[in-house]
Amino acid sequence: MVEYGLRLRAEGLSLEDFYNTLISEYKARTPKSAELYERARNVLPGGVTYHIRYFEPYPFYVSRAKGSHIWDVDGNEYIDYWIGHGALILGHANDLIVDKVRGILDKGSHWGYEHEYAVRLAEKIVNHVPTIESLRFTNSGTEANMYAIRLARAYTGRKKIVKFEGGWHGGYDSLHIGVKSGRKKGSRGLPDEVLANTIVAEFNNPSSIEKVFKEHGNDIAAVIVEPVQGAAGIIPADEDFLDALRDLCDTYGSLLIFDEVITGFRLGLGGGQEYYGVRADIVTMGKIIGGGFPIGAFGAPREIMELLDYTKTPEDKRSFHGGTFAGNPVSMVAGYETIKILEKPGFYEYLNWLSGKLAVVLQDIGSRSKIPVHVTYAGSLIGIHFTSEEPRSIRDVLGKRVNPLLNKVLQKYMLIHGHVFLTEDISHLMLSGSHTLREVESFAQLFEEFLRKVEEYL
Ligand SMILES: Cc1ncc(COP(=O)(O)O)c(C=O)c1O
Q: 76: which residues sit within 8 A by CB, 6+ positions away?
């Protein structure tokens, strides 16, 4: 690892001092958020509804959002590159989606019976996503993965599952391990017994997974992988790596699950399977397919999904799925209308062109800097890393950092200049069809200014 001193020689200031000036500036702009944070801390652990939304010294609290813009309760405006955890590919409060949702709300928000809106969204997904011939809706990506693992176990009659270091599949017990490096549990409260059948292999390392299959191949029900690891910092899988997974699963009769909760309908209508030209056996989805409302889904060829079919499969062979709000009409309508917009010619061309442009410009700027910068990207997903070499896994993202504070300083610098993304520790940018060239140029210009400033602290 390259060693960087933190002292600004002339003034005796450190990168920490610079960070603290940014924090002070943020505090000066956000008194109402500070008040809300104090209230929130009394009733919500850490003052937040999900820890990923926390950043130092306290998060801003939102009042409204439109398109690529979001406003906090103090009236500060930000260009939003987090865009609802990546769910809002059309941007915030898209007029057409809002209108269609209002229309359905007049008729009811949750019927608890079957309806055509779920059939229509399912047809759209089946139409676009390779492998999926039949699917079930859930309320989150976590649930989708939980039911997909259960289904894979039911179908193969095997117990073991393989996930990768850096893979984030939600809070489901069996997958909540190795979210960072190694076999570290992602939470207390996960008994060893629950994780005894979860194997953690190295992402983008075919020999690690070959070794796992040699040892356990005949017991492996499924391998679950994100085609582009999101939470790890937007780390695309190598094509060879996904090919190797496909081959190994075929050889050993295991199922390959693509977790496309982020990549589904983001990399294109066909998601990661289309992007990489690799077929999965089960695909899980979430985020975008809900059009801004809670959702998840898992789908597969009919032969596999039939294990959920009450009319065909006897109880002792069935795999259960259900949920009070599963397939609720609001999420179904919003998702369906979103996909109709995504189908319009030019949507992905524009979004991917804009995102590619931003990624390339950021890399260019970074390459001219004294600080090593590596921009990873796929489609409209971008990661910014201050690592000694291009990261290919979470091990690199965390282990090859030249200074662990730099991402935090960047997040705060952008924040006080009206641009927001999360997390503060790993910089992810996710774009929407509402972002403009001017906006990404402004981001790039600020990034250049940021690098000039922090170079002073080398
Ligand atoms: C790849 C991936 N899978 C699963 C999930 C879990 O989805 P949810 O937060 O809807 O439960 C996420 C959430 O960010 C994700 O990024």
A: 29, 30, 60, 418
How far is it, in rounded angstroms, from Cα 432 to Cα 87?
A: 9
Chain segment 398-455, per-residue pLDDT in tens? 999 999 999 999 999 999 999 999 999 999 999 999 999 999 999 999 999 999 999 9
Q: How many CA atoms lie within 13 A of 244 on its CB side?
A: 17
58 lines ligand 1 (CB under 6 A): no
Taking the centre of ligand 1 as the mean of its atom positions, its distance from the CA of residue 419, in whole angstroms, is 23
Distance, CA 150 to ligand 1 centroid (Å)? 17
**Domain locations in the chain as residue ranges:** 7-92+346-455, 95-342
CATH of 7-92+346-455, one of 3.30.460.40, 3.40.50.300, 3.90.1150.10, 3.40.630.30: 3.90.1150.10
Strand ranges inside 192-233, DSSP E: 198-201, 220-225, 228-229
The minimum-distance atom of ligand 1 relative to the CA of 226 is: 1
Spatial separation of the C-alpha atoms in residues 121 and 336, rounded to whole Å: 5
Task: Tell me if 7-92+346-455 shares its fold with 95-342.
Answer: no
Q: DSSP per residue over 174-228, as a string? A: GG-B-SSSTT-BSSSS--HHHHTTEEEE-TT-HHHHHHHHHHHGGGEEEEEE-SE
In one letter, which amino acid is 304? I
Instruction: Say if CB 195 and CB 184 are below 8 A apart.
Output: no
Question: What is the CA 105 to chain-centroid distance, rounded?
Answer: 29
Categorise residue 287: left if φ over 0, alpha if ψ from -120 to 50, beta otherwise: left
> Quick one: tokens of 213?
């299959």
Q: In what order do the strands lie in the sheet with 62-66?
A: 62-66, 69-72, 77-80, 419-420
User: Could you give the percent of the chain with pLDDT greater than 70?
Assistant: 97
Q: The dihedral of CA 261, 258, 81, 427: what is its sign? A: positive
Q: For domain 95-342, is the CATH number 3.40.640.10?
A: yes
Atom of ligand 1 nearest to the CA of 167: 1
- 146-180, pLDDT tens digit by residue? 999 999 999 999 999 999 999 999 999 999 999 99
Tokens of 93: 């409060």
Could you tell me if 387 and 372 are in contact, meaning their C-beta atoms sit under 8 angstroms apart? yes
Nearest-CA residue for atom 4 of ligand 1: 169
The SS3 call for residue 188 is coil
Determine how β-strand 235-236 pairs with β-strand 228-229.
antiparallel
Question: Euclidean distance between the first and final Cα of the chain, in Å?
Answer: 15
Q: Is 144 exposed, middle or buried (0-12, 13-18, 19+ CB in 10 A)?
A: buried
Q: Is the pLDDT of residue 80 over 80?
A: yes
